[in-house]
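Appendix B, record 7
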Amino acid sequence: MNKRERFLAFAGFKDVDRVPRHAGYVQDLRERMTAYLGKDPDEHFDMDQPGGDGLRAPEGFKFPDYSVYFPEYKDGKDGFMIDGNGCGHVSHGFHHFTEYISPLRNASSFEEIKSYPIVSNGSFLDDRMRAACLAAHQKGTYAQVFVGHMYEKAWQVRGYEAFLMDLLTQREWAELLLDRFCDNNLRVAVAAAKAGYDCITTGDDVANQNAMMFQPDLWRQVMKPRWAKVIAAAREIKPDVHVWYHSDGNIWDILDDLVEIGITILNPVQPECMDPVAIRKRFGKRLAFDGCVGTQTTFPFGTPDDMRRRVNDLAMTLDAKHGGLMLSPTHVLEPEVPPENVEAFFKACDQLTY
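Structure tokens (predicted):
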């Protein structure tokens, strides 16, 4: 099987020649992995990675000047930078972690929310997206594109506590931001479907270690219909496009909803938060998994033998031979992960016998 055939078999619960797998690394660990292996881990390990590209801004497109929202900071100085949504980030020197500074943190009127210049991708071009899809398929790999976050971008722009308060006390403020990000996500999803992508990736972190960050009914009222709209628009064009959804934590309470709106692949299925076997029993072939190998447990704190046992147990109990399982860390691998455990992960995947 080539990588596209393997992905489509995995996502469709068909027999695979081997379990698909992948991993990502923070820069510190990538450098240590390169020293350990003698080459970059992406080159060393045979991973099932997609090809793809997103929409692009046309030449001369004028992006907003978000610096006006941060008069006390200077972009590029003292570890401060501004991202494409206008959110400030302060680096405190701890790897890739930054402190968010929300541009609408001090907003006191609906007009301030309404006038905030979220970039619209309505005029963006799909030429690179189409070319990347074609190139991936010609190479024998699957084409996948991230359509964007919705809830996460909205709270980052507004501020976490402020956004949650808006949801409860002045919902029109929150819904205005959600709608603008939803519109952008929908346009990416539609363009990807038209270009022939095999999978679109979506998601928001809406849970903590034990439960949802807010009542599941609130998610059903506010986030579910917007994601349903995005997925339906893509499926109207390409009915067989797979939809991958990410949320860390325990999202057990909304799994039925995710399947209902068309999610076919769940990530990361954190074993510290949810039992993959219980989810498989509940949903059968309606929901494939990408993840399942803990970055809070096995990867940083296990031994290579622990890793081999974990990979073998997952492959056996989830019947990986017949699809439905892509093995991967449940998050980007952090500096505390021993290179030996990463190597053991890929070796264990290689040694699975069907």
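Remarks on this record: The chain has a mean pLDDT of 97. The CA atoms of residues 102 and 157 lie 5 Å apart.
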